[in-house]
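Researcher: For the record, we're logging two predictions in this thread. I'll number them. Prediction 1 follows.
Model: Prediction 1, sequence and structure:
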Amino acid sequence: MRPQIVVAAIVLVLVLTGLSLTIGLDPAGWVGGVVYLFVGGALLTWAAHRSGHHSPSPADTVTLTRTILIGGVSALVVGGGPAWSVVGTAVAALILDLVDGYVARRTRTVSSFGARFDMEADAFLLLILSVYVAVDLGPWVLLIGMLRYLFVGLSRCLPWLGAPLPWSRARKVVAAIQGVTLTAACAPILPVWASTTAVAGALAALLWSFGRDTVRLWDIRGGPGTGDSGPTEEPKQPLRK
């Protein structure tokens, strides 16, 4: 998969160059984009090698394209780029998020690597959008972007939190709401009270979702409760490991 990662890195550099020529991406934005490129590329190369995933599927190619857009969002956020540029790039990334899962199912190339790749792209986009929105609404917004990472970190100490989850449409809906709400809050057309209300509602839904899953995982491990014998979660889990 290394050649495709190299191509994606070159395209991201072209995207950053285009942003510099059109909106005047400042040095901080370039630093953010380049750090994203090297760190993200290294992690993706390591993950692909570790999983033995050497040839990207069509869905992986869609997700890789989405990571290029997320790199553009990262550069804009770090560089304090125009709000509408952040919104437009984030919307494109969110639209592609609807495509990769469909492509994976249509081409019968669903894989654990592809699911994890998609999940990490989703999580980082939420993190960078929450940073942008937090500038106007306050640091509490960062919890939306950090909650998934806190959950994964806690699972290192409590391994039962890393168990597979039963499939849940509610979980998927809540995950989708986060990206849409944060992107809308980035737009300079909503009054502060409206953005605050919408983002607070999204955060409340996310806390409910994580709380429900924590209880369910406790039940599955044999703790108090009845457990859940429903079907297991399909590979794509946008906010969970």
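Researcher: Logged. Prediction 2.
Model: Prediction 2, sequence and structure:
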Amino acid sequence: MVGKASRIACIGAGYVGLATSLCLAGAGFDVTCADRDAAKVASLSAGRCTLGEAGMAGMLRDALDAGRLRFTVSNAEAIAGSGMAFICVWTPQGPDGKADLSSLFAVARDIGANMAGRMDVVVKSTVPAGTARKVREAIVRAAPDAVRAYGLEVLSCPEFLRESSAIRDTLHPSRVVIGCDDDGAALRLRETMEAMVAPGTPFVMTGPESAETLKYAANAFLSMKVAFINEVAGYCEAVGADVRDVSRGLGMDDRIGPKFLAAGPGFSGGCFPKDLAALLHEGRSLGVPLMILEATAESNMAQRRRLAGKVATALGDPAAPPGSSLRGRLIAILGLSFKQGTGDMRDSVSLYFARELCARGASLSLFDPEASQKVGEFLGELMPSIKVCPDEYGAAAGADAVVILTDWPRFAAMDLGRLGAVMGRRLIFDYRNVLSGAEAAAEGFEYHGVGV
């Protein structure tokens, strides 16, 4: 167990920052987590977890009770007296796809202004290759005397956690990647991480550029795998094959593996689209063709267009003027978060479907067990045409069609007889393949899955 003298700052209390802070505190470190969102800091300080991740609430209470975790809105307060600082701020996508690193460099300047001893800065945010070196340069510019007097190293340690399993993935990662040119700093971070993660966790020790590239490459490869199976799904529909059987057979090949082979409406969320766009931007800037990944991004958007178009074709009036082919149609969308187990709607496919269907004149009824309360934040401009419902049956009431966009288990368990009884037309677009097409047909539904 590491003593309380080992103080660590963690900047950012989102999925990565909060999971990192909780797990470090659970390993015995003295952690101060800073976030500029005062309401979030107040909630966390009072023991109210701001994320619905499994295990987080209990770990938060334990860490607060033990006095090993504090929250603040002040980066300076978190950095003061700390010998290691984890940067866990979000790096959103800019209009041209480039990663917006402004928050990251603002934190770097704060570190320079407040470091009072040797500092190891650990960049966990997803960033382009070369960013760790630029962070060091920013800190040196902000505090050249302090850097000379105390010493500074900036390391890359990208995260690979998945939303809805953030704690498990932090404590039991498939690997820990550490990128640093200084052996001493790399060893200090390795010892810190070894105190937190499960025994036997493999470590990849490399340079910062390789660590940063590894993170982008991992997300890009998984994005490509999703896009691939969705293209195969379209082929299956054309020839009468079942993509579920194809996926299962592919996954049995240990060179391929079964994960990320579930056909659906395409990859989405706050990571894959953003990180793929950033990598493509970097490739274009460097004059390095990334043709497979360019095709992956286009394929993913094509899948969204294809599946939304199927809904519009089934319900639309082909003779109607532009923007009114779905006028008078009520469509229920079940599932707003980008995947089950989270309320995160960032770049969810539901946003695309809602805007596309409303642009054709449809009215929408929406339900998600975790994300419904965020509709105003993400789809406020559509509010005259949409309504949020308390459950899936309320959303389906009077609807001309139901579109399933998130694979929540409760949607797979719906009473199809009850569902059909409240709908205006028994039409289902099951874009997560959570239902049995045969069972839906037996209840009188016209059923459309993906690749089936």
